[in-house]
Specification:
Helix content: over 70%
Structural class: mainly alpha
Shape: globular
Number of strands: 0
Number of helices: 7
Order of helices and strands: HHHHHHH
Largest sheet: none
Radius of gyration: 22 Å
Distance between the termini: 37 Å
Length: 215
């Protein structure tokens, strides 16, 4: 998206920094709010809804208030899906444009009416739908696939950061107008350490007791 932004060398990093800061503050406030709303922890985990978070909303706001709050959760999930599909479509189109995909000429075609890569959009939609269809046959398999997405995405981020640290003395690196200066190396080391730690945590089973089936 930075390609479509004016003064991208500065506005891109600033946008990322503000997004991380804002998400961190709001996420912290949400976590504190959830902790205050916890009543019977075991009962919430055994919620008949199958969704402990939804049960917290129901306990705090009643049926009407809980339903209203859960509607906004669904709305956020919808817009998150839209943004994710947008990012995936951009990536698919970029790869096809550079002849990095099979049938690249077809996937990189821009619709002459909408001026958008419609074929790349449908490639993303069909591929994502096929992944979701796995859940019909095995819910544990599709959960395992979805659980690996977060650490895989995080590890792809630190791959670039790690390469920057390893090859800093071998490859001449020209810094842009937005830089962390002397703090950059420290921030990079902290980022790599955190991602490695949280990736191990995210690969752990989400249910207890741990068995061969739910690993």
């Amino acid at each position: 998206m930075s390609e479509e932004t004016h003064d991208a060398a500065i506005r891109g990093p600033v946008a990322i920094r503000m997004a991380v800061l804002t998400s961190g503050i709001i996420g912290w406030m949400l976590t504190i709010t959830f902790c205050f709303c916890l009543t019977d922890f075991d009962a919430i985990l055994a919620s008949p809804t199958g969704l402990p978070a939804a049960q917290i909303f129901l306990n705090a706001g009643g049926r009407a208030g809980g339903t209203a709050m859960w509607f906004f959760v669904i709305l956020i999930q919808f817009f998150t899906g839209c943004s994710a599909m947008l990012a995936d479509t951009r990536m698919a189109y970029a790869f096809a444009r550079d002849d990095a995909l099979p049938f690249s000429n077809f996937w990189s075609t821009v619709n002459r009416y909408t001026h958008t890569p419609v074929n790349a959009v449908w490639l993303t939609v069909v591929f994502s739908s096929c992944l979701n269809l796995i859940g019909i046959g095995s819910s544990q398999t599709v959960v395992a696939i979805f659980n690996v997405t977060a650490p895989a995405l995080d590890l792809s981020y630190i791959a670039v950061i790690l390469a920057r640290l390893v090859y800093a003395h071998r490859v001449r690196f020209i810094e842009g107008p937005y830089t962390l200066g002397k703090y950059g190396k420290v921030v990079n080391v902290v980022a790599i350490s955190w991602v490695v730690f949280i990736s191990v945590v995210l690969f752990m089973p989400t249910v207890r007791p741990v068995t061969a089936e739910n690993m």
